[in-house]
């Protein structure tokens, strides 16, 4: 479980780097809706990862104590992603829908890239 927390901190560092790049792109380019959609989607993606790590920690603690766990929070993560899409549908002039969806998938890309980087290191 300690390894999961190390991975989470590493992923968080990568996502903050990407978010800073997106903020610079939003501030200095004419593609503001695209970058704002990426910012929203990536932020929700980071929030979903934090929820998953937190639920995993609760799951491990419950298993050690012999208790059962109701859920790992799939519905709440799906609801937050749906909320991001609804926001982009409500404000189509300020947020680009496709970039919100790409931002929501950013965490999975970061996880896959980090896996291959860690595989090459070992």
UniProtKB/TrEMBL annotation:
Compartment annotation: Cell membrane
Transmembrane segments: 12-28, 34-53, 97-117
Protein's UniProt keywords contain Transmembrane: yes
Source taxon at top rank: Bacteria
GO CC annotation: plasma membrane
InterPro entries hit by this protein: ATP_synth_I, ATP_synth_I_Bacilli
Keyword terms, alphabetized: Cell membrane, Membrane, Transmembrane, Transmembrane helix
One matching Pfam family: ATP-synt_I
Keyword Cytoplasm set for record: no
Membrane-topology descriptor: Multi-pass membrane protein
Name of this protein: ATP synthase subunit
């Amino acid at each position: 479980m300690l390894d999961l927390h190390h991975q989470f901190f590493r992923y968080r560092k990568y996502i903050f780097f990407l978010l800073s790049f997106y903020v610079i792109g939003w501030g200095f380019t004419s593609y503001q809706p695209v970058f704002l959609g990426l910012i929203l989607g990536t932020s929700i993606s980071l929030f979903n990862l934090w929820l998953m790590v937190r639920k995993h920690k609760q799951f491990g603690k419950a298993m050690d104590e012999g208790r059962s766990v109701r859920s790992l929070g799939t519905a709440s993560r799906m609801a937050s992603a749906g909320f991001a899409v609804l926001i982009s549908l409500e404000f189509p002039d300020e947020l680009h829908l496709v970039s919100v969806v790409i931002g929501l998938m950013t965490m999975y890309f970061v996880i896959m890239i980090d896996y291959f980087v860690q595989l090459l290191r070992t």
